[in-house]
């Protein structure tokens, strides 16, 4: 595997910021499709791929999302060209015969709701992180957030399905005026142990 150059590291991590303000530039369907094509190739446990995405970008979709948002997330979300609902499918294991055909991985989950929920949350969170990195790699800015009423959102978007919301990511071309100074991070000494 090749090591990324400094420009790539800066784009993905070191100079990237959470965006809270957006330029009035649309994000095309083709770019959103490409975004999924890239992120879907990153690993999940047993290739379970539980994330399900809703690209909310129409006026009607945004209005449906509005009452689910906390007050401090409403304006920036309504202004973002796209808000991605990163959800998890609690029946992801039904796809395992196709996604992980080398063994009967479906049987690891059937009738085990705790294992299903833990696996879905862990791996859909991973896929949401991949979405952020893939978006940055494709020239988009991202503003991930919690700050929403999950029960209300799930009722509005996922009623009668096995999908459940995890978190939201605003996407588009960020307006630098909405970037806050970077907050401190924990040092290696504070956050890492070598065993």
What would the keywords be for this entry?
about 200 residues, alpha+beta, NADH Oxidase, 4-stranded antiparallel β-sheet, 8 helices, about 40% helix
Characterise the protein shown here.
This protein is α+β, with helices and mostly antiparallel strands and 195 residues long. The chain has one domain (25-174): 3-Layer(aba) Sandwich (NADH Oxidase). The protein is built from 8 helices and 4 strands. The chain has a 4-stranded antiparallel β-sheet with strand order 1-2-4-3, sandwiched between helices. It is globular and about 50 Å long. The mean pLDDT is 97.
- What's the number of structural domains? 1
Strand content: 5-15%
Query: Mean pLDDT across all residues, rounded?
Result: 97
Multimeric organization: single chain
In summary, what is this structure?
The chain is of the alpha+beta class.
How is the secondary structure organized here?
Blueprint: H1 6-14, H2 29-39, E1 51-56, H3 59-65, H4 71-79, E2 82-89, H5 96-99, H6 113-137, E3 141-145, H7 150-158, E4 163-172, H8 188-191
Antiparallel strand pairs: 1-2, 2-4, 3-4
